[in-house]
Protein: Tripartite tricarboxylate transporter substrate binding protein BugD
Amino acid sequence: MYRIMKKTIFTVAGIVLAATTATGPAMAQGYPTKPITLVVPYSAGGPTDVLARMLGVVMARSLGQSVVVENKTGAGGTLAAAYTARAAPDGYTFLIHHNGMATAPALYRRLSYKPLADFEYVSQVLDVPMTLIGRKDLPPKNFKELLVHLKSHGDKINLAHAGLGAVSHLCSMLLRQAVGTELTTVPYQGTGPALNALLAGQVDLLCDQTTATIPYIKAQSVKLYGVTSSTRLKALPDTPTLSEQGLAGFNVVVWHGIYAPKGTPKEALEKFGAALKLALNDPSATQRLTDLGALIPDDDKLSPAGLQTWLQQETQRYTPVIKTAGQFAD
Ligand code: ASP
Structure:
């Protein structure tokens, strides 16, 4: 279940303008007294990065300080998580991460942090479904034809992903299991470079977030084979799900959470969480993201317990999938 967004006329540029003119003096007395770092595990320009930057700009309004995005890429997001776990717990470092927080313990035999124990859990953020897209000149015109193509061409098909541990990697593993053919997976440092490779025709397929792919789908620069959520999307109403098209039960949606180093003061956690909630409740701030397919979770998920419980469930869900795929990232 997701909250329905009201239509609004504000644009992304409008958000930036509003943020630079509307910082409130109310919080200037106490925390925060300096800019806050929001660590992003993937490269600039990818969906996680875009989400962090857009939210950060809006959150700065109520925090009275800027939120500075720091991209710490590599090792499937584990470098960023490890960095955050070790950062000073002073309220000035937060991490935005996605399903990778739940897949890392199964993918990495040597992980320097425990996702379920070594952090403070602030809130879930937005959910973003994915699309399975192909290079513009890939012969199959629809998913049915793609299935036949995959069966006959097997490991000659290159499926790009945003790095071991990325959700696009998880999607590619699930796809291989569901379709029952070997596909060659090609890792990149994030969706930005993976998408560029697809647009340049260097790889055949990519499963990635709508927030990154919809502009290219609309411009017909890529082929669209289906959405990965269990139900169709408002942003792409005529596009069938993969589940509808023969992969019964296929369901991959990217969810995001905000974490802080263990021991971060309660006041900082609450203020950062409150600023996030305000941003997500402001349709003018989130309209661009929801137009690109992002979904705002219900209020109960926008809480520390909402994130922690979800992380536990997702860790249990993915661990057997990864073990079956027999893939380790280290
Ligand atoms: N979309 C990427 C993933 O598959 C990450 C990113 O570049 O934002 O996890």
Observations:
- The pocket of aspartic acid is lined by residues 42, 46-48, 98, 162, 166-168, 190-191, 208-209 (CB under 6 Å).
